[in-house]
């Protein structure tokens, strides 16, 4: 009875939305098993839109934020934005990687998918131990951005036609995975700036163009997603001043020394 009462106090309306996010990731993995990576990508993005986006807003409006919700959200993100994208990547490369043998394609696909899971998992554990508190900044490439970049690349129409074809992903994806383990600063949506209206516009444009394309021209929706994710990866640091980057570096170094 006590355990049931505690569970009811911990699990609230906000967590129903988080559940949608993690269930979308689970559905995506199942769709990959059925050989439907594009549908899996759609499931991941719908889970983000209807689960991950509103859960924090609902928690704030209802005043129901708690440690359980934070931990549940982190685990849900890991399933939907790390494991599911890795499954999508494997499904695409095992079928279409530019290698002549099935076992070669499967080995390459498994290696890339393993990196997508392994390095963000190490990042999550590291950040739990080396806790850097800096307003408006993530430490290392966020796993959600990595996951969406992976999904965008794997399901894009242009990737196979780019110079090098899918071999380009063999270079780009490991670099992005390693970026999750760095202490590079990545400005997030909580950063307040005079140019914040521009940031709001870019975030809105990302949502409108990607989800709009899913409705109108789904073939190109993931090309658009990859474009926006790479734009963030390459230019997010511009939202921070030189002084802030230096201050962030000092905070990170201090946290690393404290955890040693």
What features would you highlight for this structure?
260 residues; mainly alpha; 75% helix; globular; 2 strands; two-stranded antiparallel ribbon
Record the SSE blueprint.
Blueprint (H helix, E strand, L loop, with lengths): L1 H9 L2 H21 L3 H26 L4 H30 L5 H28 L7 E3 L3 H13 L11 H13 L5 E3 L8 H21 L4 H15 L6 H18 L1
Antiparallel strand pairs: 1-2
Helix pairs in contact: 2-3, 2-4, 3-4, 3-6, 4-5, 4-6, 5-7, 6-7, 6-9, 8-9
What would you say this structure looks like, in words?
- This protein is an all-alpha fold and 260 residues long.
- It folds into two domains: 1-96; 112-260, no CATH class.
- It contains ten helices and two strands.
- The protein has helices at residues 2-10, 13-33, 37-62, 67-96, 102-129, 143-155, 167-179, 196-216, 221-235, 242-259, and strands at 137-139, 185-187.
- A two-stranded antiparallel sheet has the order 1-2.
- The longest helix is centred in the first third of the chain and has 30 residues, at 67-96.
- The chain is globular.
- The N and C termini lie far apart (42 Å).
- 37% of the residues are buried.
């Amino acid at each position: 009875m006590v355990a049931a009462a505690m569970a009811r106090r911990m699990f609230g309306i906000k967590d129903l939305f988080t559940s949608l996010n993690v269930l979308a990731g689970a559905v995506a993995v199942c769709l990959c098993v059925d050989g439907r990576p594009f549908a899996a990508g759609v499931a991941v993005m719908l889970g983000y839109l209807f689960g991950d986006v509103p859960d924090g807003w609902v928690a704030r409006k209802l005043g129901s934020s708690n440690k359980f919700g934070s931990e549940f959200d982190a685990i849900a993100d890991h399933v939907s934005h790390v494991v599911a994208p890795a499954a999508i990547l494997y499904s695409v490369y095992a079928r279409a990687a530019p290698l002549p043998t099935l076992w070669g394609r499967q080995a390459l696909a498994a290696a890339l998918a393993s990196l997508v899971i392994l390095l963000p998992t190490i990042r999550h554990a590291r950040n739990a131990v080396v806790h850097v508190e800096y307003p408006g900044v993530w430490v290392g490439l966020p796993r959600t951005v990595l996951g969406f970049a992976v999904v965008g690349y794997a399901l894009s129409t242009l990737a196979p036609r780019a110079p090098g074809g899918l071999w380009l992903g063999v270079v780009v994806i490991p670099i992005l995975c390693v970026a999750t383990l760095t202490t590079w600063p990545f400005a997030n949506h909580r950063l307040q700036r005079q140019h914040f209206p521009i940031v709001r516009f870019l975030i809105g444009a990302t949502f409108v163009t990607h989800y709009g394309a899913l409705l109108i021209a789904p073939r190109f929706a993931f090309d658009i997603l990859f474009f926006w994710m790479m734009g963030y990866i390459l230019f997010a640091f511009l939202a921070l001043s030189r002084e802030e980057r230096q201050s962030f570096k000092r905070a990170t170094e201090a946290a690393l020394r404290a955890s040693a």
